[in-house]
Amino acid sequence: MAIYKDTPGIWRKDQVEAWKPIVSAVHDKGGIFFCQLWHTGRISTKDFQPNRQAPISSTDKPVKTQTPPRQLSTNEIPQIVNDFRIAARNAIEAGFDGVEIHGAHGYLIDQFMKDQVNNRTDQYGGSLENRCRFALEIVEAVVNEIGADKVGIRLSPFANYMDFGDSNPSALGLYMAESLNKYGISYCHMVEPRMKTIGEKVECPESLVPIRKAFRGTFIVASGYDREDGNKVVDEGRADLVAYGRLFIANPDLPRELSLMHLSISITGKHSILLILLLAILTIHF
Ligand SMILES: Cc1cc2nc3c(=O)[nH]c(=O)nc-3n(C[C@H](O)[C@H](O)[C@H](O)COP(=O)(O)O)c2cc1C
Q1: Among 44, 73, 161, 271, which one has the highest count of C-beta atoms within 10 angstroms of its own C-beta?
Q2: Where is the signal peptide (predicted)?
Q3: Which residue's C-alpha comes closest to atom 8 of ligand 1?
């Protein structure tokens, strides 16, 4: 369920139909279009829930300004995993090239992974392995449904705003990278440790490099990148791709702008150009 008014969805057939011309328009322009599958969990209010119920989460611990959540029982979890599977199927039916599972920024999947949120005592809580179980079950279900080459995941182990930090984010990121290798997904997209809160870039000693080395697929980094910084991270082998957020929103022709800048720079023989993605920001409703 959403947190913002008018968030688009992909859980109903009419929504699938409504997406088709939009996806086509992107394809007609040569774009690659992945659909981000998002469940907000406790980052929601009853105003956005069916029958004004409490939002669901791994926990019943509230986040300020949001409606206190209801902790999912163990036997309800397979239904949520299945909802991600259905949303992924719907996205492919709508024509998307793939889906990005939103496991970042304190939303439902993150609420299971992070030990400052998850206080469960069942097989989805406690150890790192248990806390990551929900995320990996979703990955497995989605991979089985649409194929690993059409699946990516976004993670932010170091982010900690809205009370969703983890006591050992490096271990969490590493465990996820190693576990994801089993599924052969298309990419892992990770938010840099320097972006601990939305929009605020801070100096920090942590690095994604060990996680990048552990993950055997395409590794995408994000947060606070400009052109020079983006080229550097790719040149130094610390990422395969860079995702741009605010720069892209402000400049819909950002790929062209960066590539034109590249032409002038390449005359001096410097740097390689980056590939930029993304994406449809969607929510899936449960
Ligand atoms: C208006 C806005 C909406 C965003 N929505 C999402 C979202 O739906 N999913 C997501 O993973 N990140 C979302 N983000 C975060 C961005 O993807 C990105 O991680 C963040 O802006 C930092 O990268 P940047 O410095 O390149 O902007 C959003 C950011 C902004 C500014």
Answers
A1: 44
A2: none
A3: 281
Q: Residue 28: is it exposed, middle or buried by C-beta count within 10 angstroms (0-12/13-18/19+)?
A: exposed
Burial of 98 (0-12, 13-18, 19+ CB in 10 A): buried
CA angle 73, 79, 83 (to 5 degrees): 135
Q: What are phi and psi of 103, to 5 degrees?
A: -110, 20
Taking only the tens place, the pLDDT of each residue in 260-283 is 876 443 333 333 333 334 443 333
* Collapsed DSSP state (helix, strand, coil) of residue 20: helix
Give CA–CA dist 151/34, Å, rounded.
9
The tokens 């997209």 sit on which residue? 189
Classified as helix, coil or strand, 151 is strand
What pLDDT, in 10s, does the model give residues 105-120? 999 999 999 999 999 9
Q: How far apart are CA 133 and CA 137, in angstroms?
A: 6
176 SS3 class: helix
C-alpha span between 259 and 152 (Å, rounded) = 25
Phi, psi of 50 (to 5 degrees): -60, 135
